[in-house]
Amino acid sequence: MTILLLLVVILIGYLLGSISFSYLIAKKIKKVDIRQHGSGNAGATNTLRVLGIGPAISVLALDIVKGIIAVWIGILLAPDQSGVFPALAGLAAILGHNWPVYYGFRGGKGVATTIGVIATLVFFPALFAGIIAIISIVLTRYVSLGSLLFALLTPAFAYLLMETYQIPQMYIILSILVAALSFWRHRTNIQRLLTGTESKIGKKKEAS
């Protein structure tokens, strides 16, 4: 029964994460497929460049919220305090965003949904990592760099603060998996960062 319930939670998380708000909003406003414009990424940064700041903020907020909801479904249905249910529900939401079943498995890079998931599970580590990420974006204007720093530093802070905030080991494992996934999804951005050809926010070809 527990395994069946876990599978249901994972499925709900995935289906929820598969809702692409950048795709839906772009279709609503401009009648276009966001994945065929700009960087081709179904995320908030590409929405900013294609549609403007208002729609981009909406996409960012909604993508974060769906990550939060997925985790809370896991928390509410979890039979114990191991953290397995909310962690896997959150991971499923991120995977859904990246490979959405509704849109031919072509989604975004999962940054905003990851923020929602990770911040719900390990709030203070995510907060500290997020502050550093935001500062890096402000100073360098590289959204991808900020995303990578957030992914990298969150599990580091979670491990260092594990005892202080009573963080379940499963959440740390999840944050490491999510970091690895984020780096893989941003592999082309990393190449451009290393060669100095990555686009800055406000210019063409940024990615989120």
UniProtKB/TrEMBL annotation:
Its placement in the membrane is given as:
Multi-pass membrane protein
A GO cellular-component term linked to this record: plasma membrane
Question: What residue intervals traverse the membrane?
Answer: 50-77, 84-105, 111-135, 167-184
Q: Which GO terms describe its biological process?
A: phospholipid biosynthetic process
Give the superkingdom in one word.
Bacteria
| Family (UniProt) | Belongs to the PlsY family.
Protein name, per record: Glycerol-3-phosphate acyltransferase
Organism phylogeny: Bacteria, Bacillati, Bacillota, Bacilli, Bacillales
Its gene is: plsY
